[in-house]
Amino acid sequence: MRIRIGFIGVGGIAQDHIRVLKKMEDTEIVSLFDPNADNARRAAEATGAQIMDSADHVLDKQRIDLVFICTPQFARGDLEIVAARRGIPFFVEKPLGVDAEVVRQKEKLIRETGIIHTVGYVLRYYDTVQQAKRYLQGRRPHLIQGVRIGGSHPAKWWKQLDRSGGHLVDTATHQVDMIRYVGGEIREVQAVFGRVSFEQIEPDSTIPDAGAMNFVMDSGAVGSLTESCLSPFHAGSDIKFFGADFFVHLSQNGSQLTLIDNEQSLTVTAERDPGYEQCRTLVDAVKSGNPSLILCDYADALRTLEVTLAANKSEQNRIKP
Q1: Which domains does the chain have, with CATH numbers?
Q2: With contact defined as beta carbons under 8 Å apart, do 144 and 240 qualify?
Q3: What is the pLDDT of residues 294-315, one digit of tens each?
Q4: Nearest of 273, 223, 278 to residue 94 by alpha carbon
Q5: Whole-Å CA distances, 96 to 30, 105, 287, 290, 299
Q6: Where are the alpha helices (DSSP H) in 48-155?
Q7: pLDDT tens digits, one per residue of 111-131
Q8: 3-state helix, strand, coil in the chain (%, to 5)
Q9: Which of 3, 251, 288, 286 is nearest to 128 (CA)?
Q10: Is residue 125 a contact partner of residue 104, using CB atoms and an 8 Å limit?
Q11: What is the DSSP letter of 52?
């Protein structure tokens, strides 16, 4: 059985999905739409897909078996809902949006359709992340530290808070999601953000250039996540879990794992391509009608979004002496 795939949005992140899908003999990208004509043309030349006149025309159940929705969060509209109601399984990029209530309404409607779907929290598919998750089952860290430092997205919309949500909502969301996925639910957040550099070099932007979020887990553990999208000379991401008798460190975006306890001290590097595993799992779910191996659904991704948006709200409500 060959899975026919449509794409809505074929910019940078979509190219990663196209790369791995082209490796699969049982998939075919048949249609696509992007408002950027150059993006659409290049993707069509690379895949042999037909360029459609609109996103709605891609969502044709007679033509496709699965759709990848890779539009920016501010421009997504109701594409997930339309796909679900038409009976088309879908992949949608993270984050799910910039308004938690809007996304909650979408989640309810998607859940009611029962459609197979997934959200692009790709780091969950690292074998190292899976190993860390298994190790921490039954163990209780008391402290969690996270870091995500890097550069800015080149698009102008990304630097507007009402469109992207900022670096935490859009990018460091991967680290927030990994903390949730490996360590359990976050029940409380407090955050502060700053604009020391952006105020000088890009005053028209509205996102912070750095932030720090403190949080409390359902387990009682406490933690912090620091992030910056304006670091041209250093980049990296780490999550550390500290326990009374263990230490777990996921570094390099989760691709390297260190485990230390009284019986072992080991460091392992991921052997799997998480992007391939994510797409392979979704395609297999569509073929079999069984979504049980999919690692992130809309409801789960909503919880990650709620944490990051709560951090933004905390900054807005900051108490000043």
Answers
A1: 3-120+278-293 (3.40.50.720), 123-274+306-316 (3.30.360.10)
A2: yes
A3: 999 999 999 999 999 999 999 8
A4: 278
A5: 25, 12, 25, 23, 10
A6: 55-58, 79-85, 100-113, 127-136
A7: 999 999 999 999 999 999 999
A8: 40, 25, 35
A9: 251
A10: no
A11: P
Strands 66-69 and 186-194: unpaired
Chain segment 225-238, per-residue pLDDT in tens: 999 999 999 999 99
Cα–Cα distance, 107 to 105 (Å, whole number): 5
Number of residues in the chain: 321
Nearest CA among 155, 68, 107 for reference residue 306: 107
**Alpha carbon distance 79, 104 (integer Å):** 15
pLDDT tens, position by position, 239-274:
999 999 999 999 999 999 999 999 999 999 999 999
User: How far is it, in rounded angstroms, from Cα 75 to Cα 311?
Assistant: 22
